[in-house]
Design a protein that fits this description.
Strand content: 35-45%
Helix content: 10-25%
Strand order of the largest sheet: 1-5-4-3-2
Distance between the termini: 22 Å
Length: 90
């Protein structure tokens, strides 16, 4: 079962979630059970999961998090079809 870490959404993240039509349940799913957590510049981390948005079209949902804050802050989020650009092989 996924963890229930509390996250705070930045104002920008709230706006992007609305603008990009990312439902809160999907955000919570990626944060609690990401397929990958990838380190980024500036100490940020990208929580990311491959999601089927219907019609057989998979997207990568990326949630960018500042983990050094307490609670961690969701800086922004988006979905992209460029999965291979961001996906890290294991």
């Amino acid at each position: 079962m996924g963890s229930r870490i509390k996250f705070k959404l930045s104002k920008h993240a709230e706006q992007e979630m609305d603008r990009r039509r990312i439902p809160p349940a999907l955000l919570q799913q990626v944060l609690s059970r990401p397929d990958q957590v990838v380190p980024m510049l500036g100490g940020l981390k990208a929580y990311q999961s491959k999601i089927d948005f219907g019609g057989g079209k998979n997207y990568l949902v990326r949630v960018i998090v500042a983990e050094d804050a307490n609670p961690p802050i969701v800086v922004t989020m988006y979905r992209t079809s460029k999965i291979s650009k961001y996906w890290r092989g294991i």
